[in-house]
Design brief:
19 helices, mainly alpha
Length: 489
């Protein structure tokens, strides 16, 4: 619990002291008119109170990510908790914040349009591909996962709706409405309630851990894990289940630490904020809150199993993270916890899927300057969801691997975009360029070692990733030196 409190304290201190420094570099101006004020059209540019905007942004980026990811990452040991905190403070929160800043500075536009402004049409095209690919994979993943859970509880076997098909159609129907209708018709009404549900559920779990966490390792065990010999061996070598910490831990735990999906959600609230001063509490604050959620569930994933990591791994193999969530909630909160767990596991992924498809529509609209008429929104939404339905027939694990890779790839691309933004402003770019270098190293290592990439051994992929990071750092130092000399001249 000492380590847990240290982690929570660091996240709060990061918001209190580091986020104002980050905001200072961004050039926030409360006196300028926001896109919502200038383009209010009753569909996407709709004024929203900052508290409601925070809750919507929190649920947009959260879903089941900060619950499932930390539970899956807990098998790597205490370094998972360290990654959540450091990744959030130095990477994820800064990534989310600048996603919001750049969008609100660029009329609430989507990432590809922003990339085209700061780089060129080639980078714009790449960002359009990365963004659309990730949004589509997120939407498909969050059709399949809740449909699978709800399908296990249904009674349609023996009909044309056998298995999960009924729930796939129900979820697709909801996604169609959420993608099509103005944002204030469904999302702004339901999301604050669902956001509060996640906060309440996580708070109750955290309180329960304070009074009943008998299976947590003691402080000496935690510090012993980071002894010189043990840490150097385990950081790059596989854990007992054969999964190397580098780069798989950083891909496994994204939500809570850093996630490219979050940047795709930035334009939704950037079109609804009535003042630039709300960017930091809405975007940075939502990501910091997600980090707290991630820490709670990572700790719960360890504490709920008297047999330790092997028992956690066994339950993950049996029923995935959803079964673990149900076990944790019922263990600490009883029958009420079980009900909340089922609601959470079923609803939270849906709240990520609907905004994923909505963001995909906005991205396409921005890229091709399509008028926002009802007819055009229908013509965009229908084919997207039809293709998504057929994608649900593909093996879930394959979809997830592509989702994980595209998620880290996009977050790294956004950090490089933010680096260019700060370079142009002449402010301290290292707050985003250093995380961008690390993200690039992780992404390269992952694609080198994974079956969807080059399938090299972990040792080779790690060395290649580190080599790429060193080269990028040297190039940045050279570019920074040239910029400094140019300014002085």
């Amino acid at each position: 619990m000492i380590i847990f409190f240290i982690c929570i304290t660091l996240l709060i201190l990061g918001y209190k002291f580091y986020s104002p420094f980050v905001e200072k570099q961004a050039g926030i101006d409360p006196s300028v008119k926001t896109p919502q004020v200038r383009f209010d059209e009753g569909v996407d540019y709709v004024a929203i109170h900052p508290v409601k905007a925070f809750l919507i942004q929190f649920l947009n980026i959260a879903g089941v990510g900060p619950i499932f990811g930390p539970i899956l990452g807990a098998i790597y040991g205490p370094i998972a908790l360290v990654w959540i905190v450091l990744g959030n403070i130095l990477g994820g929160a800064v990534h989310d914040y600048f996603s919001g800043v750049m969008s609100i500075k660029e009329d609430g536009k989507s990432l590809p349009e922003i990339a085209g402004h700061y780089f060129n049409v080639v980078y714009k095209g790449l960002m359009l591909i990365f963004t659309a690919m990730l949004l589509f994979f997120v939407g498909v993943v969050f059709i399949m996962s809740p449909a699978g859970l709800l399908g296990s509880l249904s009674y349609f076997d023996g009909t044309f709706l056998e298995g999960n098909t009924f729930w796939v159609f129900v979820i697709l129907g909801y996604y169609f409405l959420a993608t099509l209708l103005p944002i204030d018709k469904i999302i702004t009404k339901l999301y604050p309630l669902f956001g509060l549900l996640m906060i309440v559920m996580t708070t109750l779990i955290a309180i329960s851990l304070l009074f009943n966490a008998p299976h947590l390792p003691v402080m000496g065990d935690f510090l012993g894990y980071f002894s010189h010999d043990h840490f150097n061996h385990d950081f790059l070598e596989p854990n007992p289940d054969g999964a190397p910490i580098w780069p798989l831990l950083f891909i496994t735990i994204t939500c809570g630490a850093i996630s490219g999906f979050h940047s795709t959600q930035a334009p939704i609230m950037a079109r609804c904020l009535t003042n630039e001063k709300y960017v930091r509490p809405v975007y940075y604050g939502a990501m910091m809150s997600e980090g707290i959620v991630g820490c709670v569930w990572a700790l719960a994933g360890i504490a709920a199993f008297p047999g330790g990591y092997p028992e956690l791994q066994a339950m993950l193999s049996q029923g995935g993270p959803g079964l673990v969530v149900n076990h944790i909630a019922t263990s600490y909160l009883g029958a009420l916890g079980g009900i909340m767990a089922i609601i959470a596991v079923a609803i939270f992924p849906i709240t990520s899927g609907d905004t994923a498809f909505r963001s995909l529509r906005l991205t396409i609209v921005d890229a091709f300057n399509i008028p926002q008429s009802m007819r055009n929104r229908v013509f965009l939404a229908v084919p997207i969801l039809i293709v998504a339905y057929f994608m649900t027939k593909i093996d879930f694990s394959l979809i997830w691997r592509y989702f994980a890779f595209s998620n880290m790839l996009l977050s790294t691309s956004v950090l490089w975009l933010a680096t260019k933004y700060l370079f142009d402003r002449g402010t301290f770019h290292w707050i985003v360029s250093i995380p961008a270098i690390i993200g690039t190293s992780v992404t390269v290592s992952y694609i080198m070692t994974n079956a969807i990439g080059f399938n090299l051994s972990a040792q080779y992929s790690q060395h290649i990733g580190i080599g790429v990071a060193v080269c990028l750092f040297v190039l940045l130092v050279v570019f920074n030196s040239k910029r400094t000399k140019a300014v002085q001249a």
